[in-house]
Design brief:
About 10% of the residues have low confidence. The strands form three sheets. Strands 1, 2, 3, 4, 5 and 6 form a six-stranded mixed β-sheet that branches. A two-stranded antiparallel ribbon has the order 7-8. Strands 9-10 form a two-stranded antiparallel sheet. The chain is an alpha+beta fold. The chain contains three helices and ten strands; from the N terminus they run ββββαβαβαββββ. It has one domain: Nucleotidyltransferase, domain 5. Strand 1 and strand 2 form a beta hairpin. About 20% of the residues lie in helices and about 30% in strands.
Length: about 130
């Protein structure tokens, strides 16, 4: 399985849509077999998605992500674990342990959704959080 984590300064990049770098790693029997760093050649999410397809990425771990980019990634069969924060090594270990999504590695304002993924809490028109 090939996995990409968008990164910035040794941490998960806070926003996928403007990330410029990714760590690509192969997972084999719950171990990292190979890893490399990849420059993302464009700020355009469409180009990033094409690059991930070319690299054979099956799962993307990232910070915040726009709904449009999320839909496009899912449409090409790339699983997305979004709204993740933390040091890359910690996130990789959590991924290998099958511990993502993880509330301790969730971006502030995110919570575990019923489906097991993370989602951002949104405010309704009255300014109160809704679930």
């Amino acid at each position: 399985m090939r996995v990409a984590i968008t990164v910035s300064r040794g941490r998960v990049s806070p926003v996928f849509d403007v990330s410029r770098e990714a760590i690509i790693f192969e997972v084999d029997k719950r171990r990292v077999a190979v890893s490399s760093q990849e420059a993302l050649v464009s700020d355009d999410p469409v180009h990033k998605i094409q690059q991930f397809e070319t690299l054979g990425i099956s799962t993307l771990v990232c910070g915040a992500i726009s709904n449009e980019a999320l839909r496009q990634l899912q449409a090409v069969g790339i699983n997305v674990i979004g709204f993740v924060t933390g040091e890359v090594d910690t996130v990789v270990k959590a991924f290998i342990a099958n511990d993502l999504p993880n509330t301790t590695l969730a971006m502030p304002g995110c919570q575990r959704a019923n489906g097991g993924g993370l989602r951002q809490r949104r405010r309704n028109r009255t300014g109160r959080n809704r679930q």
